[in-house]
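FAQ

Q: What does a record look like?
A: Structure on top, sequence underneath. For example:
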């Protein structure tokens, strides 16, 4: 498999630079988390490293560890915020691996008994709904702090 290089003009790099809007949930020195714009269910959000990384093949160890820490933190908060029954964590690499945006990201998908996921990269959500869902997760994080 040939590994393409990091494109600094990918959508998530632009979100990190503040050139595109996002519904931010959380940020620390190494990671940033925001709502997925085409959610597969309530509370679907993404965690990305701040350091440029295309995917699992080029991400630095420390950056990946930071993403894992934030993923766990956000997974717990999202489950609590939506009273979910479980959570699915997904991460795709290269086109054949299902990757569409080429800045490493981890999906956090709260799951509910008997409720199927909507399609991957399906429909854009209402911005007001995303804003409201981001606030719900942020409120849980704030209560933990
Ligand atoms: P994948 O690379 O397969 O994990 O898919 C990219 C994910 O990013 C999909 O779930 C999209 O809905 C999501 N996405 C694409 N553009 C944006 C954006 N501007 N803001 C938030 N999420 C996005």
């Amino acid at each position: 498999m040939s590994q393409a290089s990091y494109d600094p003009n990918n959508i998530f790099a632009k979100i990190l630079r503040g050139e595109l809007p996002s519904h931010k949930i959380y940020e620390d020195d190494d990671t940033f988390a925001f709502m997925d714009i085409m959610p597969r269910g309530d509370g679907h959000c993404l965690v990305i490293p701040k350091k440029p990384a295309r995917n699992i093949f080029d991400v630095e160890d420390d950056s990946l560890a930071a993403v894992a820490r934030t993923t766990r933190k956000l997974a717990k908060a999202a489950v609590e915020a939506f009273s979910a029954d479980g959570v699915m964590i997904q991460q795709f690499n290269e086109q054949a691996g299902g990757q569409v945006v080429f800045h490493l990201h981890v999906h956090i998908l709260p799951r509910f008994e008997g409720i199927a996921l909507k399609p991957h990269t399906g429909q854009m959500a209402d911005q007001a709904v995303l804003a409201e869902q981001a606030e719900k997760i942020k409120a849980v994080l704030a209560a933990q702090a």
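Q: Is there anything notable about this one?
A: Strands lie at 24-27, 31-35, 45-49, 86-90, 106-111.
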